[in-house]
Amino acid sequence: MKSLITKLKSFFDTKEETKKDEIIEQVKKIREEKELNEFKEEENQKPKENRYQKGRKYELYIKNFFEKKEYKVYPKGYIEKRKDSGIDLIAYKNNEMALIQCKNWTNPPKQKELKVFVINCDLYINQNKDKIKDKTIRKLFITSNSKQDYGVKCFLEEYNKQNDIKIEYIIINMED
User: Fold this and answer.
1) Tens digits of residue pLDDT in 135-165
2) Other Cβ atoms within 10 Å of 53 Cβ, number
3) What is the sign, positive or negative, of the torsion defined by CA atoms of 154, 157, 163, 167?
4) Does the predicted TM-score (pTM) go above 0.85?
5) Which residue ranges make up each domain of the chain?
6) Strand 136-143 versus strand 96-103 pairing type
7) CB atoms near residue 25 (< 10 Å)
8) Which among 99, 100, 102 has a CA at the least distance from the CA of 125?
């Protein structure tokens, strides 16, 4: 924008006809760039909504998946939204309680996401000791992406060697 102002000042100072055409072309280019940037900005806002909806649909799909296996499922993520503490679903069956994180991502989840999930599960377990003292706890990290990141693989192996409650990394594709 500053270059345009400088050129306009130059035009009015020199009043050369060739510079006038040059400046008009520059102004057109700047307007086109601005419109294109505004369009791109609008488009970037849409995928955020779509990613949120895509995630919610996947959570519902996984909820139904577990209900078909005779689990009672509390849709923590759906009910508590952003306050779900990183646990999307809690599934109950007999003496079992499964803490579930759902990821419907284009790219495979990274080690960071698993570590956050582990911390969230541990916090939930510690905060709800009275409710879950007689339950068998499962930590299920469920993704729709069929690829597994190498860092995730290494983390799972190491974590599961050292801990009683294992992380189960499960791939469930969503059927459209």
Assistant:
1) 999 999 999 999 999 999 999 999 999 999 9
2) 10
3) positive
4) no
5) 1-175
6) parallel
7) 10
8) 99
